[in-house]
Backbone:
């Protein structure tokens, strides 16, 4: 069995956050006696971390391909004199 192939997804921050969230939620639901509000807080923080990481990753990828063009005004895109 190739362990690199199995462990490679754990390099992703989103996968690690999802894994920790699922483990904590399962422990709170089945093993620990915690109120529903705490369980909701655990899941909410996990989702916020995953979404924040996704937004950050998208920003890094799109920043490299962003090109600013000069504004054009006037008729048919002519530059004003």
Residues:
């Amino acid at each position: 069995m190739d362990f690199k192939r199995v462990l490679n997804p754990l390099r992703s921050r989103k996968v690690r956050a999802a894994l920790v969230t699922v483990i904590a939620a399962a422990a709170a639901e089945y093993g620990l006696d915690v109120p529903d509000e705490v369980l909701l807080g655990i899941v909410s923080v996990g989702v916020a971390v995953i979404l924040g990481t996704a937004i950050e990753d998208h920003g890094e990828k799109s920043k490299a391909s962003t090109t600013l063009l000069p504004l054009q005004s006037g008729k048919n895109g002519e530059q004003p004199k």
The helical segments are 3-7, 13-31, 36-63. Residues 10-60 form one domain.
